[in-house]
Amino acid sequence: SNSYSKGEQEKIKDIPNFDISLKKSNKEEETPQDPIKWFGVMLVPQSLKTAQKHFQGALYLAVKIANVQAQLTKVTSQSESLKLLKKVAI
């Protein structure tokens, strides 16, 4: 269980969340989904495999950063709203 109220949980759900997980296609396809396999099994240089792994890692981090940025934007907006309400209440 978490320490958020039901209202806070609803607000958290409004934060954009980007997903880069691999999706399975409903239709069967003959071509491999992994572009590196386009070169065949024996012809793929190790440097290409390494580059692909580094790119995937960078993409994962970029999406993670975008999610954190979206959360930060939401929290900053909520903070500003609360500051305005506090000023009005005084």
TrEMBL record:
<dbReference type="InterPro" id="IPR040357">
    <property type="entry name" value="Vma22/CCDC115"/>
</dbReference>
<protein>
    <recommendedName>
        <fullName>Vacuolar ATPase assembly protein VMA22</fullName>
    </recommendedName>
</protein>
<dbReference type="GO" id="GO:0070072">
    <property type="term" value="P:vacuolar proton-transporting V-type ATPase complex assembly"/>
</dbReference>
<dbReference type="GO" id="GO:0051082">
    <property type="term" value="F:unfolded protein binding"/>
</dbReference>
<dbReference type="Pfam" id="PF21730">
    <property type="entry name" value="Vma22_CCDC115"/>
</dbReference>
